[in-house]
Prior knowledge:
about 50% helix
Amino acid sequence: MDDKLEKLQELGAQKIYEDTHIPIKHVQAILHSSFEGFSKVQFLGFISIIEREYSLNLEEIRQSGEDFFVDKKISGENSSLFVSQKNSQKNSKTLLYSFFVFFVFLIVLTFNYISSPEVSQDTMSVDNTIIDSIKKDIIVERNVTKRENNSTTIEPEIILEENQKVVIETPVEDVDHSFEIVAKTKVWFGYIDMQTHKHYQKTLKGSIDLDPNKNWLLIFGHGHINMFVDSKAKKFKTYNNIRFLYRDGELTAISKKEFKKLNRGHSW
């Protein structure tokens, strides 16, 4: 890792926010080389402010950010090309289908024109007979369904022989689990779904509920937070970054090294 970036991480996001007034979520994103939430101009501006405040040369992280925005631009252009080709194929299929329907319509129209009146009358008579039969079947089916819906279900009578017992099992209800995080002051909060490895981040003040049935990796810009696992409170108070593992309903504080190991070698 770049020594200068490591120095900034030791200062902590809260301290940098207080010195530079850069929003804490952007500070935390820079410290962990996460460029998704920036525009290119915004990112370069924040880097310049930090360099000026602490007399540092952050050329390495600036270059990483610029590479990210170049890749993002190329990816967006390729995506637009793919969508255009897909729409073209879809329009071609639609046009072909419309032509087929029109062709079938012409055949049917021609056949009806050359048919004799007698044949048309017989055909109409047969069609009406079939339609009347279908109507009757639908009415009967509706009446049967209505009777079934209005009827009362009668359980079959259970006849017991001597010395037999009936055991009625009552299903056990599942216990409701919960996982709530409460921040009394504004804090940058990053959380990772360990199954999909998808990253989320936000500036949190107040409370947020995470899915208690999933496993999570958590990181906070500072530790003035309370967490409630199945309504049991766990309180923390520190100015430093703190990290946690929530797995199988259990919450455990972990080190930076453990966090990186569980996060595929990344600090965020």
